[in-house]
Amino acid sequence: MKPPASPHFKTYLLICLMVTFGPLGNVLLGKGMRQMSASSTGTAAGALGLILRVLTSGTIWLGIGSLLTFFVAYMLVLSWADYSYVQPASAAAYGMVALLAHFILREVVTPMRWMGVMFICLGVLVVGHTPPRTTDGR
Amino acid sequence: MLALIFYLLIIGAGTGGELCVARAMKTVGEVKDFRPAALLRLVPRVLRVPSMWAGVTLMATAFFSLLAVLSTENVSLVVPVTALSYGAGALGGKFFLGEQVSARRWAGVFLVCTGVALVIVGRA
């Protein structure tokens, strides 16, 4: 893969990956584990069966892959960008979860939660207008 | 009192851990080659930095503190409190990593803190 052109571009790209794959990984793991617990028996044999089912579940592996992508993107972006920039910017994941819950899972999102999402988006927008890097990288 | 200690650990150790990981990545230096082989070569270099291990240990401490406090307190109370970690993160960025946190960035952090607390309270 060719390196991205500018520090701003690669910072935004990696934060987008974090905001997408972090919540996605949690949702997939949650979904996968709910499928498992419904059929576990609580005995040693049941526990072993549960582990085997976890290890052969496509949903769980997709969740693990998503969280791994999130973590790699997080580590890479911190190699040049400010922590005080990345941390609040990645809070956009909370907005992503609310949107996923409303439009994909058809969950009821309360007005207070939407207000919170608006605050987060506004905060991310404000932080996004500051320089991502204010140190010499050491 | 015990819950207060756990809250302090969640915010302090969690943010401290992330700050240590950030310092470790700054020590490794800016990553410019994103090919899979180059990223794999990066792993042993990252693991040789002591602050990475300190960061992972602190983050694990925060995680187990979160589990402990969740066994006695309501999620709707615990998780909004953890929104304070955004404020702690900005302070840590300024004093531990030497970042310049401008008034605009502080304003953004405050809005994010408020928003995260509202999202989590609104879930209840």
Describe the structure.
- The complex is a heterodimer of chains A (138) and B (124).
- Chain A has one domain.
- Chain A contains six helices and no strands.
- Chain A has helices at 7-37, 44-55, 58-78, 83-89, 92-103, 111-128.
- Chain A starts with 6 loop residues before the first helix and ends in a 10-residue tail after the last helix.
- Chain B has one domain (2-123).
- In chain B, 81% of the residues lie in helices and 0% in strands.
- Chain B is built from six helices and no strands.
- Chain B starts with a helix and ends with a helix.
- At the A-B interface, helix 3, helix 4 and helix 6 of A face helix 1, helix 5 and helix 6 of B.
Ordered list of secondary-structure elements with their pairings:
The complex is a heterodimer of chains A (138) and B (124).
Chain A: H1 7-37, H2 44-55, H3 58-78, H4 83-89, H5 92-103, H6 111-128
Chain B: H1 2-28, H2 36-47, H3 50-70, H4 75-82, H5 85-95, H6 103-123
Helix pairs in contact in B: 1-3, 1-5, 4-6, 5-6
Q: Characteristics of this structure?
A:
heterodimer, A: 138 residues, mainly alpha, B: 124 residues
Short description:
The complex is a heterodimer of chains A (138) and B (124). With 138 residues, chain A is mostly helical.
Strand content of chain A: under 5%
Characterize the overall form of chain A.
Answer: flat
Shape of chain B: globular
The biggest beta sheet of chain A reads:
none
In round numbers, the mean pLDDT of chain A is 82
Q: What Rg of chain B, in angstroms, do the CA atoms define?
A: 17 Å
Number of domains of chain A: 1
Class based on secondary structure composition and strand pairing of chain A: mainly alpha
Q: Main beta sheet of chain B: strand number and arrangement? A: none
Strand content of chain B: under 5%
Given as residue ranges, the uncertain stretches of chain A (5+ residues, pLDDT < 50) are none
Number of helices of chain B: 6
The SSE string of chain B, one letter per element, is HHHHHH
Q: Which structural class best describes the helix and strand composition of chain B?
A: mainly alpha
The whole-angstrom Rg of chain A is 18 Å
By DSSP, the count of extended strands of chain A is: 0
Tally of DSSP helical segments of chain A: 6
